[in-house]
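Lecture 7 notes. Example A: sequence first, then its structure tokens.
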Amino acid sequence: MTLALSSGLLLLRLVAGLTIAAHGLQKLIPWAGGPGFSGMKEGLQKQGFKPAALWTGLAVVGELGGGLSLALGFLTPLGAAGIIGAMTIAIFKTHWKAGFWSQKHGYEYALLHLAVALAFGIMGPGSYSLDALFGLTALNTLPLFLVLAALAVIVAGIGVISSRPAPVKATEASSHAS
């Protein structure tokens, strides 16, 4: 890998990884305007996630853990898959209804992180990474990443679907209207 390409991948990994890790840290502790674990848990509970503590923990692991993994280039397929899972839930459960633009709380920001994680999952972390330093480059295979990413998307889908409000039966709706 050329010096320029390795340096570019390192820069992108550091900026994107540390940005998403900081976003995840806000979900763990009330830092920089973030809700902290209890605030995040309460927010997810209001959105219908049960048990909310589990889903909050998964969000923290996906964002904070995945972001640090990406920034360091350590266990990159696992970290990238964690980010993909967290961003899939963020897009479809929280931001989709607001449209694309982040100024309106849309999915623009989450989609960008999902795409960066997907790209690093496909191509690996580059030469300047802990995976390369420790000889873990054999982990950076497309099949392994695709399996991990698919599992992350399945878990995200379970979260989105299971947190939907129960449909109101016609007899209940008419009795509430009376």
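Example B, a different protein, same format:
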Amino acid sequence: MKRKFLPILSLLLLSLFSCKDDDDNGHSHTGCYIEVPCTEPNGLISVAEADVLEEHYKDVFYGLFNEGTMPYNGYDGAVRYIWFDLEEIKKYIVYVEQNAQDNGYDNLGLRVYLGAKDQLGQDGEVYPRQTVFFVPTTNPTGGDEVSDNINIVNAQRLNLGGAGIPDSVDQEEGIGAP
């Protein structure tokens, strides 16, 4: 009896765990997902164009920020970049879209604000550090002006980025040839 029961039980378990739900369209239901059109986004610029923007920032603003700052261990002044994990950005976009759906908002966007937070330096002292944070927006009128976008005040903001040591990386440094 055991010999007949074991193969039948094995086949039954195999069929239960290997069946694919025909309604899932190939998506995994282990987490959230968003559908995005497979086209390039508006606003793409070349590495060379970004280099011009970065150099202009360094020429106009970066020096001004650094004139009044005191260097300390591992931090020589204003930062030039803040890095965000792409998976966390994706999760935040899903969070924003869910909040918007729950509240009937459409025409969504993200506004990036500049901020500062205290951070422990290598010398054990606390120093202010530049940061940015994302604020979701909606454009109820569908207008074309930046001012037509208003902040969604009942959604949390995202600030999980990391700032590098100033002048440690230029935007055109990295891997991959254009």
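Note on Example B: The CA atoms of residues 32 and 94 lie 7 Å apart. Helices lie at 2-18, 47-67, 86-103.
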